[in-house]
Amino acid sequence: MDPLTLKNLNEARNARKAAIVVTNLTDGQDRLVIEGESVEGELAEALSKAFLNGKSTTIEAGGCEYFLNVHVPPPRIVVIGAVHISQALALIAKTSGYALEVIDPRTAFATPERFGETELFADWPEDVLANRPLDAYCALAAVTHDPKIDDYPLAAALEAGCFYVGALGSRKTHAKRLDRLKEEGIPQEALDCIHSPIGLDIGAASPQEIAVAIMGEIIQAFRSRGLG
User: Fold this and answer.
1) What are φ and ψ of residue 139, in 5° steps?
2) What's the pLDDT score for residue 1?
3) What does DSSP say about strands 194-195 and 119-121: parallel, antiparallel, or unpaired?
4) How many other C-beta atoms lie within 10 A of the C-beta of residue 73?
5) Digit-coded pLDDT (tens) for 127-164
6) Model's pTM, two decimal places?
7) What are the b/e assignments for 141-165, b being 16+ CB within 10 Å?
8) ∠ CA(221), CA(88), CA(84), 5° rounding?
9) Domains of the chain by range and CATH?
10) Which of 8, 9, 131, 165 has the most crowded CB, counting CB atoms within 10 A?
């Protein structure tokens, strides 16, 4: 690999940006493509597919053979609220290969006894996220029903361009939430990105079923980011 390509790749990985090293197997020349960059020709479709599935592969495009060495940041799920749904979601996320952390300032809920080895922060979201900022490879799920806890991280997730932003609550509750966020200056286009009611529509009733619905929606969002 060209030293400059390697340097740029390391910078991209440190910044949690998805990148692919594209190597022409005929002449050995390589280049780095960051997710979101414009690429022309047949190669564009192959790169888009590789960014979504995260798998390195050999492809043919424009009469040449290329090796795509794919580097996608591991997705991170941030759950606001140490509730029963969060407990179930932590187990499902681990099984699905997603890192998950829970943030809740209510120390009666955010206890190691309830969450075991799950990364847990018994503090206000604004304080935690100041040191652990959100990014495009984060999913945020707000499930406290408390505007004082949920609203700030929802706004932060929209500003950071998280690939998934979901919030628990009825349509009436969500309408009030949108009014509050709009008053904070969040544009309608961004507000439209919030998934609420949260989770896939599978008729979920119990906390465990709701957690399954949320995890399914997060996976769907991650594997289709940038499409449509």
Assistant:
1) -115, 135
2) 76
3) unpaired
4) 18
5) 999 999 999 999 999 999 899 999 999 999 999 999 99
6) 0.89
7) bbbbeeeebbbbbbbbbbebebbbb
8) 115
9) 3-71 (no CATH), 76-222 (3.40.50.720)
10) 165
